[in-house]
Amino acid sequence: xxxxxxxxxxxxxxxxxxxxxxxxxxxxxxxxxxxxxxxxxxxxxxxxxxxxxxxxxxxxxxxxxx
Length: 66
Description:
Blueprint: H1 17-37, H2 41-62
């Protein structure tokens, strides 16, 4: 993993893969809480799709390509 320059949701630098995974879990929890607060199913889906797009981009940045 290339995590140099990656930050947590709180703006702290990520130094280990474990911190990266912990940050991902925190982001998923925030997404879940935000989605469940929203009654409109279309907006829930929009939150989820947005998260997945951002997450895919982040994984492409940090994962080693062979």
